[in-house]
């Protein structure tokens, strides 16, 4: 599980954090060492492995947290806003890793407010509001003849117009 705004042991190095996670999951020393090296390489964090996580960028922090979540080879990953505050290169890297995880039989459950991303990455979606599922099914079933974002707004409600802001296009200078 990888919650949004995750608090990591950020005084550890990236390598130490992944290693610690492996030991917490009961993996032996050789397996931890091999998988840690593999994950650092896959996440493009080999050069940063010896730096403390506190010194990582937002994208690097997301990737090291994902690596720590993956080290024990889970069958299901639950991710909360995994692409928030992540640069495009890191986002592409994370997407590739998640696609590989799913391709090898894993399941990813993710929450996101970025409907375009959800539409591109997910096979099945559920639109939730205040703890209630409003729609669920394949992306095509849920979105119907609209975009997923339009369908989300239809189901959840809320203001989508800029009514009353006609003055925005005029310059006062």
Automatic annotation (TrEMBL):
Signal peptide per UniProt: none
Record-linked InterPro entries: ABC_transporter-like_ATP-bd, ABC_Transporter_VariousFunc, P-loop_NTPase
Nucleotide-binding is among the record's keywords: yes
Keywords carried by this UniProt record: ATP-binding, Nucleotide-binding, Transport
PANTHER family in the cross-refs: ABC TRANSPORTER ATP-BINDING PROTEIN ALBC-RELATED
Pfam families hit by this protein: ABC_tran (PF00005)
Protein name (Swiss-Prot/TrEMBL): ABC-type multidrug transport system ATPase component
Lineage: Bacteria, Bacillati, Actinomycetota, Actinomycetes, Micrococcales
């Amino acid at each position: 599980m990888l919650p949004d705004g995750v608090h990591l042991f950020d005084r550890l190095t990236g390598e130490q954090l992944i290693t610690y996670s492996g030991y917490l999951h009961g993996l032996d020393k050789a397996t931890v060492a091999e998988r840690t090296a593999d994950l650092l390489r896959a996440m493009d964090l080999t050069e940063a492995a010896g730096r403390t996580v506190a010194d990582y960028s937002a994208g690097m922090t997301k990737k090291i947290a994902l690596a720590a979540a993956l080290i024990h080879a889970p069958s299901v990953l639950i991710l909360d806003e995994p692409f928030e505050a992540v640069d495009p290169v890191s986002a592409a890297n994370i997407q590739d890793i998640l696609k590989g995880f799913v391709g090898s039989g894993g399941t990813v459950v993710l929450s996101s407010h970025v409907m375009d991303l959800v539409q591109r990455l997910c096979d099945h979606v559920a639109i939730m509001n205040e703890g209630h599922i409003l729609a669920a099914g394949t992306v095509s079933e849920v979105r119907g003849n609209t975009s997923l974002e339009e369908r989300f707004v239809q189901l959840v409600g809320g203001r989508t117009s800029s009514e009353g802001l006609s003055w925005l296009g005029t310059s006062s200078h």
